[in-house]
Amino acid sequence: MASRGPSLPRITDVAALAGVSTSTASKALNDTGQLREETRERVRRAAEQLGFTPDSRGRALSSGRSYTVGLITTDSSGRFSIPIMLGAEDALSAGEMALVLCDTRDDPLREQHYLRSLVSRRVDGIIVTGRRTEAREPIDVPIPVVYAFSPSTDPADTSVIVDDHGGASSTVRHLLSLGRRRIAHVTGPATHNSARARAAATIESAGDAFVGEPMHGEWSERWGRHAVDVLLRCCGDEVDAISCGSDQIARGVCDRLRELGRSVPDDLAVTGYDNWSVMALASRPPLTTVDLELEELGRRTAQLLLDAIADNPHPGLVEMPTRLVTRESTLGT
Amino acid sequence: MASRGPSLPRITDVAALAGVSTSTASKALNDTGQLREETRERVRRAAEQLGFTPDSRGRALSSGRSYTVGLITTDSSGRFSIPIMLGAEDALSAGEMALVLCDTRDDPLREQHYLRSLVSRRVDGIIVTGRRTEAREPIDVPIPVVYAFSPSTDPADTSVIVDDHGGASSTVRHLLSLGRRRIAHVTGPATHNSARARAAATIESAGDAFVGEPMHGEWSERWGRHAVDVLLRCCGDEVDAISCGSDQIARGVCDRLRELGRSVPDDLAVTGYDNWSVMALASRPPLTTVDLELEELGRRTAQLLLDAIADNPHPGLVEMPTRLVTRESTLGT
């Protein structure tokens, strides 16, 4: 068919085909009023035959709701916000709510523009998400808002975040359960909240088994490779496990260890973080890592927003559990 | 602020604060009617003070338009559809149009559900995108539709696709310009349209410089590594360049060549495809590759849809140019 098809059938077309008045057709399709079942059925058949779809905007206007939620994201690259968005969309669509996407590209002016536009569209609520786990300034709108991944600085807001403490602790407990007793930690910049939180949880969980200081650098494979050189020079055979703050770093660690003739996990066990499949599965060997369960985080965010829209807000911080995924980098083949 | 703020200020609140009638306030804010500039200004100040945002839904209903576009994607993983979506969103938001996200997860029932929902919301148009370059069955709705990345099987529809022939040819011309005369091609499954199209363009552009047959396998680093073993066993020193159908394959090719002591690009030049930064930049050496310019494809799709909504459809196939990005895997350091 051509891009521009015939115009939409109207309720008057349905009424004409069924041989009833427009108001009877409307009652039949909305299951209201007192009509004979036979009449209702005739109208329904006419609607089906014509491909009639009721205009949901009237319902929206009369109910004072738009059945629409806005999603504000600062994360154009999408690594973290995309799964959150898909989870939220999944939960919302089950309730016949539409998700409007607003990508601010980290531009405060763009964010203000989007907020005005969403309010003028009378969206029922807004989800705000970002690429960092640092808390952000709340947005100022007179409708329900839930923050996902990047929490609001205001504790009275509802924010849904990843339990990074639990995630990092789970890798350490796993390494200890495998008999590892000298664990080093290689991670991202000390200026990043996620790197600091994971490092602190690693130190706390490892206790006496922790070696040296957390090694902070870029979130990159290159830093992972370089960190291995630094670590082996300083501590050599003292280390039997390296827990990493990201899968990219862990993949670089594995590559460099292999190049130096060290076996993973026989000589050193390695763990990642994120369960980013393009890294975790392509790594040689594949990585034991922490899945952030971001789709589930998105679903939970949407549910909390639906609650708030229904006048049942849940102020405060919700920490979502992570999931440890074990693979060859700790278990061997 | 709490999740549920105060209720939205209404036009009557603005009128009361400005000391005018509701109809005067409405005229002042809509720049209609005959009013003194002083009155208009007083109403504007009152609106600003109260944080009043006009309800755009009335305008939408009276104009017969919703200023909303639906985006149907089958690509939950998002590698290709996310940049397309962001480009479309960017072009649409400039025209005050909102983008509603519908992720079908490759489920035809879910797609039908979304189409009904979008039609009942009276979206002005729909963008359909997917993860494969194979043509897909058109959707049946009485509103404008434009297909992005995955074209419609109906030539009367508007479809915007990547010029894969041009993209693959550009890598071959680049290799020939560097003096390479024995080019092999390693790519994805022969059942994939994108792999076949890129292979055909490579053979055609390379002419006598093409070595052997296109090597089809998985879209993976593992296949890239394995293909090097096969290629060196069969053709050994006959090959001075390997053009790959994806960056993942090219990264595997580079890794295996390094492990075998072959220098890239001194012994063999390598090219990728996609300019997927996590692969192309992390590869050792970084990859010369083809950028699909998917954000631009998304923008063009949105513009064509806006044209169609304005009763100016452009039926047919639009092929978008790719961009060659040169890096160390062909140029050296």
UniProtKB/TrEMBL annotation, chains A, B:
Q: Determine if tRNA processing is one of this entry's keywords.
A: no
Stored SUPFAM superfamilies: lambda repressor-like DNA-binding domains (SSF47413), Periplasmic binding protein-like I (SSF53822)
The UniProt keywords, alphabetically, are: DNA-binding, Transcription, Transcription regulation
Concerning InterPro entries, the annotation shows:
HTH_LacI, LacI/GalR-like_sensor, Lambda_DNA-bd_dom_sf, Peripla_BP_I
Pfam families, per database record:
LacI, Peripla_BP_3
Q: Where is the HTH lacI-type domain?
A: 9-63
* Designated name of the protein: LacI family transcriptional regulator
